[in-house]
Structures are given as structure tokens and as C-alpha cells.
User: Fold Methionine aminopeptidase from Virgibacillus alimentarius.
Amino acid sequence: MITRKSKREIEQMQAAGDILVQCHKEIAKMIKPGITTMEIEAFVESFLAKHGATAEQKGYNGYKYATCASINDEICHGFPRNEKLEDGDIVTIDMVVNLNGGLADSAWSYAVGNVDEKGKRLLEVTKTALYKGIEQAQAGKRIGDIGHAIQTYAEGEGFSVVRDFTGHGIGPTIHESPYIPHFGVPNKGLRLKEGMVITIEPMINEGEWRSKMDANNWTARTVDKGRSAQYEHTIAITKDGPLIITDQDK
Assistant:
């Protein structure tokens, strides 16, 4: 069922989003060769506890961690681990914050040390694709408009769009209807309405878009070992346009 949020509910989600943004900004300072994603995981647990929030994905369908930490050819749902990040890696940290029942979800890709030019372009194109999708998140538009904007831009830049994982509605649980593909046909799909809260989270690959699943049944990675990047925001559809609940640039 698709739920449309009240002003009060969106304000609750915004409060969770503010904590999530602060957390990502601290993570950005930590990213360097030699750090482990398990250290980032421990920091996130501590940071959320200090701010009276919890990690909503911990325990979700048996998932054990507060964060997903996906490195290089891992598309999403990578487990935090004790291996050190290396110079040139790309790592995506994804988390869902719960503050008094309000949820916010945001993934961010980080360059570790000196990333090569193609890696930098992958990050730049993926982030730009996210914002091109957000531009279409208007009351009266359709879900296909979001996916089409992302797909045409990313493919036009020589990258591919993952199709096996999508954005989604959020609140009161992590994954709600509707699903938000990052590919599509304009003016097709469900019409967006004021009060809907969704995530837009394109996963963009260097090589082909297809994925394969690791033996842990969580981590998806590219089939050709090409690198993948992801940026994600939680968005409220308002009469004044998209409200980015997890905006880092306020």
C-alpha cells in the first residue's frame, strides 16, 4: 500500500534525515586508505546512539549491520569487514536512520585516496544522475519520468544503469510501495502525488548493468568486475517540488 505522509510525519523524517546527513559528513572525513569499513560501522553505531537514533536496517530480514559497505565491483548490500580500504578504491556507505519512528535513507559513494579518471567520472555521473532523477520527482509526474531522466543521462555518458535494484517508498518501514526504477519510459507508471516519500538511488556501472549475488545472499556485484557507484536521497513530494530530506548541501 502507498501511504502519503502528513506534514508532521515528513517533519519526523526530516529530523532523522538531519542526523543521517551529519553522520555522512563525519564519514567523509574518515575515508582514507587504511581504514576499514568495520571501523566505519562501529562509528555509525556510536554516532546514532549519541543522537538518540537507531539503525533501521540492523535486523531487517536478518541483516546484521547498521551499514552496507560496498567496495568497487560490489553494487549494493556489501557487508562491513576488517580488510583495509586501499588507495584508489570506491566505497559506498548506505544506511537507514530511525529517529522516533521517522525514517531516512541515504547512500553515498566515496573515493578512497587517489581514484583514477574513469572512477572519478563514474562518481560524478552517478551523482549527477541522482539529481536529474530528483528534478522529475514532481507531483503530477510519473515514475517513468524519473527513470528515463537517469537512464538517458547515464547511458549517454557511456555507463550502465543497474536494473535489479530500485528506489522505493519509505515510511513506516524501510521498503514500501511504490518501487522507483532508475530506467524507464517517460509518462509511464504511477503518478506521483503530494505527500509521497520515496528514495531515488541510482546504481551506475562502468561495464554492463547485470548483477550476480554473493554466497551470503545479500551482496550484489557486477558480472564483469567493473566498478559500481551509488548515490541516494530520500525525497518528499510536495506542492512546491521535491524536498530532499537527506540533503547534504543545505
In short: The chain has four helices and 15 strands.
